[in-house]
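Title: Prediction job returns without error message
Component: structure pipeline
Severity: low
Priority: P3
Assignee: unassigned

Description:
Job completed but the reporter wants confirmation the result is attached to the right record. Sequence as submitted:
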Amino acid sequence: MYNSKFLNYIYLTITVLFFFGIKNTYCQSIFSSGHGELTLNLNDSQDGLDFTFQAPPGSIVDGQSISENQTFKTDQIVFQASDSSKNSRPENNSTFNFDPLGVAEGEDIYELDITGVKTPIFGFVMSPLLGQVKDFVPVNFDLISAVNTSSTNSTNDHYSVYQIDFFNPPTPEFFISTFDNGVTSQDTFPVFPSTQHGHANMAFSTPGIWKLTFQGRATLNDNSVITGQDTLTVQVIPEPTTFALMILALITLIILRFNARVSK
């Protein structure tokens, strides 16, 4: 039924796709619950900033609760937002303007909630820099880029970071939104040394595998400014593309093997 050389080529191709899928799915740890923190540190030479990701005790990493703090390089971890992150975008009113989320009223929006009730909490942390940075100058997490690598239409992909303030009436304060003018110098989340860390709602207009690149920026006590840049992966709803490819490849391989035996 099939030419043996052709079958061998198909087997090889599918096997490569299968194991490529496994590697890309499982080479990084998955953070799926808890209080995850993107943390700035001085680099080894003390002339720049490095990012790490902190997972405190009680966090769920790779499906298991961890008993002690774990530190990851940003390329070792995937921050996962499950189905519970999906909400409908609220309507605007006299005090609330949610247009910077980048979707229309009532449409789906995917959020990491600051309360942590339904989703993991995302924090921005600068505490390792205490004593080395100026006390009343914020350490900034500047957004460099936000890319949904699973998307086929990037015009619909928007990322935002905001808080609901405590004024009367309360209003949303957007620190980052790629919906207004793309990524600009205004897209930054500040953390003051007096607070050491900050939390905010993190919203995505579309599901998929997002690559968020941040630049850390800090003013040292001698007034010099140091920076550092890194990229964090966020999986918004367990993205099925890679896993589906693996399953499809495996099924196809089984069918081809079966047909090859039947044709003998």
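Comment from assignee: result matches the submitted record. Helices lie at 4-26, 178-181, 241-263.
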